[in-house]
What we know:
Elements: H1 3-38, H2 43-74, E1 90-93, E2 97-101, E3 105-109, E4 112-118, H3 122-127, E5 135-138, E6 141-148
Parallel strand pairs: 2-4
Antiparallel strand pairs: 1-2, 1-6, 3-4, 5-6
Helix pairs in contact: 1-2
Amino acid sequence: xxxxxxxxxxxxxxxxxxxxxxxxxxxxxxxxxxxxxxxxxxxxxxxxxxxxxxxxxxxxxxxxxxxxxxxxxxxxxxxxxxxxxxxxxxxxxxxxxxxxxxxxxxxxxxxxxxxxxxxxxxxxxxxxxxxxxxxxxxxxxxxxxxxxx
Length: 149
């Protein structure tokens, strides 16, 4: 399996794991809301319900973010190689390696570390459109692009 395919698969696994976690939280909160209805009364009851509602809203917000990530991943064509950095590109510099996709953090392929970054992140915006031998300055550090595929 090539590096790009491996990185893409790790990003998909990252999104699926987050989706599963959020769905479990929603399910657990729904059960808790139902049991809150059956039990106690008064202010404590109302506070408990309000807290659960907030948790549910937060989880559904996270779910929409996960859906966005899935849509971004669906736009990536890993068979497409280009010397100009775009969504789905691997960019190696003399200091850090990147995979322009979604913000999934550190990924490792063949003992090499890559950072999956979104094209809308500050570093992603900076990398977009760059080519081999371009230099960039990020967080005060200068680096040179050694490979774009």
